[in-house]
Amino acid sequence: MDRLSDIGEIKRIMESSGFSFSKALGQNFIVNPSVCPRMAEMCGADKECGVLEVGPGIGVLTNELCKVAKKVVAIELDKRLPEILAKTLADHDNVKIISGDVMELDLHKLIEEEFGDMDVVVCANLPYYITSPVIMKLLEEKLPIKALTVMVQKEAADRLCAELGTRASGAVTAAVRYYSEPKLLFKVSAGSFMPAPKVDSAVIRLDVRQSPSVELKSEKMFFRVVKASFAQRRKTVLNSVSSGLSMDKATVTRIMEQAGVSPLARAEQLTLEDFASLANALWEATK
Known about the structure:
The chain is 41% helix and 18% strand. α3 (60-68) links the parallel β2 (49-54) and β3. The protein folds into 2 domains: 7-208, 3-Layer(aba) Sandwich (Rossmann fold), CATH 3.40.50; 219-286, Helicase, Ruva Protein, domain 3, CATH 1.10.8.100. The chain has helices at 7-17, 35-42, 60-68, 81-88, 107-115, 131-140, 154-160, 171-179, 219-231, 237-244, 249-259, 272-286, and strands spanning 29-30, 49-54, 71-76, 95-99, 119-125, 147-153, 180-188, 193-194, 201-208. α10 crosses α11. A 7-stranded mixed beta sheet has the order 4-3-2-5-6-9-7, sandwiched between helices. A two-stranded antiparallel ribbon has the order 1-8.
């Protein structure tokens, strides 16, 4: 069904099924007909590839993904939608809808069972309220996926794709760059959705690295340092890390100098290599 982004068609589907939008689930259906074909085209899928989608809604993006991929598996939390999706996606025999919470599912098992030896990419229009948790789950679990192409709030896109060492960066920026190579693909106006959110969105793509971009002695220490550093952005990394890791400032100062990181620097001034160097030095000093 190719009219799923038509407002009239969406209203007809909603009326015939008694469906209403859930604010709690952050539901905004796409009514701009150009958005989903572009996402499907740019997500890296082909006829030998599998696509994992999170939150298909009424199937606007799913419909486009089915045209370009060998198989599409969509995870939907709203138990009202699978019945609707069975109708809107009836033209496709390469799609499977799984009812469940992506944050609770065993994705390693799901990917193995559903896609086998296929290359797999993720493509999704993510609800704003759960953007970062979903992205970090997909990256941290080191799933066999090649790329994540997701539509998120514009502000989140800017933070996720920011260069470390700039004011736009944050803890999630460091995590995303550790696991992947991010790129902002295109912007999507608020009017492209029904109901229209109060902010614009953007589509980003995260190409998953085969190996991390920096060498770490302890990933746990690295993420502790990153989290502590950005927890108090206005303070120096020295103050933030000594507070966050419960270490005295003199010790942290010495370790930072050994790592080649200025004790006067703030988190937004550090590169990924700086964080890695500091984390490695802290790990060596505290192991």
